[in-house]
Amino acid sequence: MSRRSAVSDAGLVGRHLRSRASTSVALAVLVGIAVALAALLPRGLVLLSDAELQHALTSLAPGFTDLSGVGEFGALDTTGASTTEQLFGPADAVLTAVPSGLPSPLADSLGPVSWVAMLPPDFVSLPTPRVRVQPILGLAVDLHWQDRVTFIAGAAPRPWAGDPAVPLDIVLSQDYAEQAGFEVGDLIEFTDAPLLVSGIYSADDPDGAYWTHARELRSAIVTRPPGSPTQVRGAAFIDPLSAAGLPVLLERSELRAWYPLEADTMTFAEIPPLNEQLRGLGTLGLYLPSGEYLVFETELPRALDGVTTTVSTVTAVLALVGSAPLGALLAVMALGTRTVLDRRRATLDLAASRGASERQLRTTMLGEGLLIGIPSAVAALVAVTLLLPVPVGPVTVALPILLALLVPALFVGGSLRSAGSRNDLGARGARRRWILELAVVALAALAVFLLVRRGLVATEGGSVDPLLAATPLLLSLVVCVVVLRLYPLPLLALQRAARAGTSPVGLVGATASIRAGSAAFGTVLAMVVGVSTAAFSLVLAATLSAGLGTAAMSETGADIRVDAVALDNADAIEAIAGVHAVAGLSTVGGVPIAFGQDTPRVTVVFADTAALHEVRPDIPALAEGSILVSPDLADRAGTATRLNGHPVTVAGSLPGRALPDLARSWVLVDDAEAVAIFGSERAFESLLIATEPGTDVAATAETIGDLVTEAQLTSNRDRVEVTDIATLRQDAAARPSIAGLTIALVAAAGISLLLCVISVALGALGSAGSRARTLGVLRLLGMSPTQLRGVLAWELAPVTVTALVSGIGFGVALAVAIVALVDLRAIVGGSAVIPVSIPWMLLTGAAVFFAAVVAATGALSSAAARRLTAAAAVRMGAE
Amino acid sequence: MTNSGSTNAPHIECIDLVRIFSAEGVEVQALQGLTLRVEQGELTAIVGASGSGKSTLLSILSGLDVPTAGTARVAGHDLLAMRSRERTAFRRHTVGFVWQQTARNLVPYFTVAENLATALAVAKRPVRERRQRIADVLEPLGIAELADRLPGELSGGQQQRAAIAVALVNEPEVLFADEPTGELDSLNSELVLEAMRDVNERLGVTVLIVTHDAGVSSHVRRTVQIRDGRTSTEVLRSTRTNELGRSVQHAEEFAVLDRVGRLQLPQDYLTKLGLKDRVRLDLEEDRVEVRPTRPEPNTETEMKEQP
């Protein structure tokens, strides 16, 4: 009979699913996006945490995080040892084997051992010294020393058999040889045997980790004890075999062994076990074959703790930011599901009236839901997993799965009744709404209570905390509930006003908006959540950005700061283009100040306070004889006191962090008083420089740096340090945590606004039929196109205005609360408290943009309705 | 399951049927104690003005809606006591229906055959029987060649006949039709009504047509008029042979008396005799007389005070 018609169940269901597939495909795409976002966020967080860890570890000084052990070398059986292997092999083997005996992940993170034995240093001298210094020299044994140096003069030392009459060959670092006045061929007096300088070397990688563990082998350490000649301390390599002739010294020598931490393979997830193992190792130590004991220490746990704190805070903020767009996405998905269901409802009604059981209907809907939800979710999940092959925990896998199952669940659980059917007796619907709303409010209250009790930032970090993620969403649901309850009130007032007026537009529009009521819940939720997330993200991004400036300022004290041994070119710097003012500072520690009987010692900062006031308008210029004190002193100081015996007046106090790098108790004095208080002029050690607005601060800082360096003595040039807030900010902003957070905040704002637009479009699409009917009737009643546009505007305007007002209000309030509760210093660094900064202009711009986009979307989706002829629309109404 | 075979039970029976809708606090009483009996194999039309409750009655009888109070039985099924499983079976096997709008009869993206197949699939008829069954139903309705067309490709009359085919495909005992000719011209109306009469006569299916079109009554033997949610009058049509040997149509109109003795008087009677508020009832030997009261100015106020 029929070739085209299907009669089998599968054929019929297939035909049913293929019809009107466009909305289903759109919904499937939405599911894919939701799943991809839900899968991306935790993976991105893992990557961000790892990147932050890498950044933090690699920005530390080399060798800082190595696991290093120090102990006595201990007695060694030197008899008959004729090779280095025989002599040091056993000890080297034990030290090499240390990582393999440690638990994972510590064992995997440690690189190969380096070790050096430092024999006890002693005073040495030339028979006729070339310079007036007291050299102190230790001998050092390193099996691989020749790989680390380049000879500048002479040759490698020969092995020494222990004969006190024969000189022992040593090689010296270039710096030590210069400072101590030694040259190749010099015979140096030493206790066990004369030392012969056979060569002078320079370190191949002077900044490498090796030299931080054995600094005295790279350069001399010069100290000038009062009343004694300058001491030049250093060490010299000997041929390792020579150590066999110095058994006593070798036994007492200090063994330094260290294992570099291979940061590039370390992941954030390994931090907790790693920290525990490192702390355990620090208390346990290690026994050597000589019976000696090696004490391990590392700065790594401290660095790791810092990273953990940063990442925890970033995670918390990201969870707060990320959950809300996910909520908007859920609302949009629910809207989309409703649209698809509405399109199917007529068919379902028909099948039901023909005797389809509820199970048959729900099975068909489940099938469609699964077809929409599962393939796109799987595709998104596979794509994300291939794109970011990062292992994630079970909780983070659960969220995408739940999202994928949401559409089938909504399809199965959705109402089978037509929206247009008449209601039964009783107000069960109204009661159910109250119960639902109370449940939402109660849940939100519970979440806030739990969060306040527990604290916002979970300590472990690195994974999304469900409670933290759910709370803003629940709060925005509460806002929606309140909004939907309250927003008919102004509309009712408008309706009353419209009744009195002559224009029908306001009356029809206001009435329609009131009647739409809770039917618009999905749209309102998506818009409130979307707008509030955008507002929250923008405020937080602005606060972070301002926070970076605050943190940089607390480090430099001004736009640019220059530190050097002595600075006397303030005038020359002030002449540089773009420089507004320059103030010199010098500090002296341990100066007594009299508070009655009490004379605590304080740090005195001398500054050209008139210039300082120019640089820092918050610090006043000081009159002669007056001082400013740090807050801790302010409580104790009267008005008149004596500084180093000189009478001064306390003019007031400054915040503790007003000037950078200062200890707790300090006093600011004008440098004109320096002679009176100390009897001599003070050279400035720091310059604080303010730049003109619009100046390229980093470039100016570079110019200033060149100028200052040139003016310095050659020996002091490497002590010139120039920092500027632009570079500091730039460096900070480039840190993975901050860069990632900024990207996430901006993305969250963008995605939220996009979701709002989609929800508006879906809402308009969903009500297209009824709108077309209403407009058809209104047109038949004689409304002009302008009036019809007015009615259309009424459909969107109240919801949009409400969403904007409540969304921005809620978003800003949430951001203010979060900034108050979460210490953002953990992210941006610095010591000054980060105040919230609200970018009103940007928020207004975003609101205007949003309103414009909504208006455009509404206009586009209504264009179709307007194209219908009035007759067709009214005919549709009859059906 | 069904006791339609028993001789004295009517095939469709409604006693004091009440249906109240509520929307935003406003209650609408669509049926106000309607009583109706239809015997098996009868072809009956229910005629009433818009809002008289006829569509509500049909929704209840076809198992799509539940009455607020009263008794409703169709082919032995008590519509108030039905559980969801029985209701599903009732819709599948006992009743078929045809609505006025195509959208409520046919799935727009299914062909005629697929629409029939859907009804068969819903009733879990084996796939191998379906094509034959579809052909068997379409053939007598004269639309066998339209099986592969979509509803949108059919004329109004063809759509309604396709709807009748869908309604009949699961061999129901009762066929309900709600304004089946509402959107059709007179020729197509004729065709559709003839198809229904044919079904009634050929298959013995009880047919109940609800319409506001008084013209339909000329096609059926019995017409029941409902007003304000109650049956008011009935017209019985019979064919008699007159003295010349010709068959002539004979129609007789009756008022319907309910169980407690209420009846509705036709509107034109009321107007003509000025019957209003109170009337005088007199019992005569073989009838009851209804007469208007003559208003007397003095007594009227008195009587108002004494209800």
Question: How would you portray this structure in words?
Answer:
The complex is a heterodimer of chains A (879) and B (307). With 879 residues, chain A is an alpha+beta fold. Chain A contains 28 helices and 22 strands. In chain A, strand 7 (187-188) and strand 8 form a beta hairpin. In chain A, helix 13 runs antiparallel to helix 25, helix 14 (488-500) runs antiparallel to helix 15 (504-516) and helix 24 crosses helix 28 (870-878). The longest helix of chain A has 54 residues, at 300-353. Chain B has 307 residues and is α/β, with parallel strands linked by helices. Chain B has 2 domains: 12-241, 3-Layer(aba) Sandwich (Rossmann fold); 272-307, no CATH class. Chain B is globular, with a radius of gyration of 22 Å. Chains A and B meet through helix 1 and helix 9 of A and strand 1, helix 2, helix 3, helix 4 and helix 5 of B.
Low-confidence segments of chain A, ≥5 residues, pLDDT <50? 419-427, 875-879
Q: Give the uncertain stretches of chain B in residue-range form.
A: 1-6, 299-307
Count the helices of chain B. How many? 9
Tell me how many strands of chain A there are.
22
Class per helix and strand makeup of chain A:
alpha+beta
Question: What count of domains describes the coordinates of chain B?
Answer: 2
Specify the overall morphology of chain B: globular
Task: Draw up the topology in text.
The complex is a heterodimer of chains A (879) and B (307).
Chain A: H1 9-18, H2 21-58, E1 67-72, H3 84-97, H4 106-109, E2 114-118, E3 122-123, E4 134-141, E5 149-154, E6 168-173, H5 174-180, E7 187-188, E8 195-203, H6 209-213, E9 221-223, E10 231-237, H7 247-251, E11 254-259, H8 271-284, E12 286-287, E13 293-297, H9 300-353, H10 358-387, H11 394-413, H12 428-454, H13 466-486, H14 488-500, H15 504-516, H16 521-556, E14 560-567, H17 570-574, E15 579-594, E16 601-607, H18 609-615, E17 626-629, H19 631-634, E18 640-643, E19 646-653, E20 666-670, H20 674-678, E21 684-691, H21 697-711, E22 721-724, H22 725-733, H23 736-766, H24 768-780, H25 785-821, H26 825-828, H27 840-867, H28 870-878
Helix pairs in contact in A: 2-9, 2-10, 2-11, 8-9, 9-11, 9-13, 9-16, 9-23, 10-11, 12-13, 13-16, 13-25, 14-15, 15-25, 16-22, 16-23, 16-25, 16-27, 23-27, 24-25, 24-27, 24-28, 25-27
Chain B: E1 12-23, E2 26-38, E3 43-48, H1 54-61, E4 69-74, E5 77-78, H2 84-94, E6 95-98, H3 102-105, H4 112-122, H5 127-141, H6 156-168, E7 174-178, H7 186-203, E8 206-211, E9 222-227, E10 230-241, E11 247-255, H8 267-273, E12 279-283, E13 288-292, H9 297-305
Parallel strand pairs in B: 3-8, 3-9, 6-7, 7-8
Antiparallel strand pairs in B: 1-2, 1-4, 4-5, 9-10, 10-11, 12-13
